[in-house]
Specification:
Elements lengths: L1 H10 L13 H17 L4 H16 L3 H26 L4 E5 L2 E4 H27 L2 H10 L4 H30 L8 H6 L1 H25 L19 H23 L6
Antiparallel strand pairs: 1-2
């Protein structure tokens, strides 16, 4: 009875409980690329700003709004703000503020705003895609497109290795703290703690890699036969194809109109 229930559950297609999250990963990728092109090829800073807002709205509609908004704010502070400051300081023009030997120019402020927003469109799209699409589902979609199981596994294992590395780092850091290794306070203590933390982390990572290789070999992963998957993708509904086509058409019209000046004021 248990085996029958398990088999029936594994035969069910993936359902993440949200219509946007249930989009086929490659369709979602195509739609995101279309929005990114609109934001990055638009004639002024309002286009990438609108694209960033669109990705934030999509994130909330997909049920991942809090995670995506947090990631977007971190990227904005770490990437967007730095690019804005560099452009504001390095672009020649009419100075509006003097900061020591360099001057902030009016042209630099507008150039920095425009450039940083265009970069943030890409950051928003990438972060939202990997927040909405689970890694196993992405690997399955890549394999369904014709890629070899080895390629899909390498992609899946690469993402999983990043997650595992973060978890292992936190575990080793806590263990070293319990042993009396000073990892906080001043910068000198933190630098000294790098090697006691990194060495165990890399040893654990190498051990996990070997365990995965043994597990794959035990499951006959290298045998040249059809591979089975525990996940089953649902058939793509007509409404999803319509949504993808509509986004592509609207993006093409918006790009052509922006380049041709259709939306500019007389």
């Amino acid at each position: 009875m248990r085996d029958a229930v398990l088999v029936q559950r594994l035969r069910k297609p993936i359902d993440l409980g949200n219509p946007i999250a249930n989009f086929q990963p490659m369709n979602l990728l195509v739609m995101f690329i279309a929005v990114v092109l609109v934001g990055t090829l638009g004639p002024d800073w309002r286009w990438p700003l609108a694209a960033c807002a669109a990705f934030l709205i999509i994130g909330w509609c997909a049920g991942r709004g809090r995670a995506h908004t947090g990631a977007f704010i971190k990227l904005l502070l770490a990437v967007g703000l730095i690019l804005f400051v560099l452009r504001a300081l390095l672009t020649p023009g009419r100075p509006v503020m003097q900061l020591g030997p360099v001057a902030v120019t009016e042209e630099g402020l507008w150039a920095g705003l425009d450039f940083s927003l265009r970069v943030m469109v890409i950051c928003a799209a990438v972060s939202l895609f990997f927040i909405v699409v689970p890694r196993p589902r992405l690997a399955l979609a890549i394999e369904r497109m014709g890629a070899s199981p080895h390629a899909s596994y390498v992609i899946l294992a690469s993402f999983q290795a990043i997650t595992d590395l973060g978890k292992n780092t936190r575990v080793v850091l806590d263990a070293q703290k319990a042993r009396g290794v000073e990892t906080e306070k001043n910068l000198g203590n933190r630098i000294k703690a790098i090697f006691p933390v990194l060495a165990p982390v890399f040893l654990v990572a190498l051990s996990q890699t070997e365990e995965r290789a043994i597990a794959l070999e035990a499951r006959a992963f290298n045998v040249p036969t059809q591979k089975t998957a525990l996940l089953q993708e649902r058939s793509v509904p007509v409404a999803e194809w319509v949504a993808v086509g509509a986004v592509i058409i609207i993006s093409i019209v918006a790009i052509i109109g922006g380049v041709s000046g259709w939306f500019s004021h007389a």
